[in-house]
Amino acid sequence: MEIPFAPRAIGIGVGWGTHPDTANALFSLLQQYPDTPFVLDADALNILAQHPEKVTLLPKNAILTPHPQRVRTTYFGKWDDDLHKLAKAKRFCKRAQSTPPYQRSSHNDYQWRALLGEQHR
Questions:
Q1: Does residue 106 carry a pLDDT above 80?
Q2: Distances (CA, A) of 60 to 34, 35, 84, 98
Q3: How distant is the alpha carbon of residue 87 from its chain centre?
């Protein structure tokens, strides 16, 4: 899949579905635009959940926007407490070289809590 211009960012996911052809289009885009910022949501995350080996295709600082329940069931599994959940989130984002939503200039706990769907305290 080619985009007929040089994108400054690419957002993928909502309404895409998870058909194998769609998954291949996602993987193709990730490979063709390795230096372009990506925002992945909904079906794009479902596709990655179905193909965890493809997480390595994510460009550095890709922004993943999973629903909190998706975080539990697909990416991190069960956790014992909030600190354990936070540690799992940080490990996943480091491995995937991804950026949690709402990140600004640092990785403080409030920003990580935003990723996990928690209220700021």
A1: no
A2: 8, 8, 24, 6
A3: 16
* H helix or E strand, kind and range, residue 39: strand 38-40
Sign of CA dihedral 39, 61, 74, 52: positive
pLDDT above 70: residue 120: no
Contact 98, 76 (CB under 8 A): no
Q: Which two tokens stand for residue 4?
A: 């007929």
What is the sign, positive or negative, of the torsion defined by CA atoms of 77, 80, 86, 90?
negative
DSSP annotation of 81 reads S
AA identity, residue 90: K
Backbone φ, ψ for residue 120 (5° rounding): -70, 140
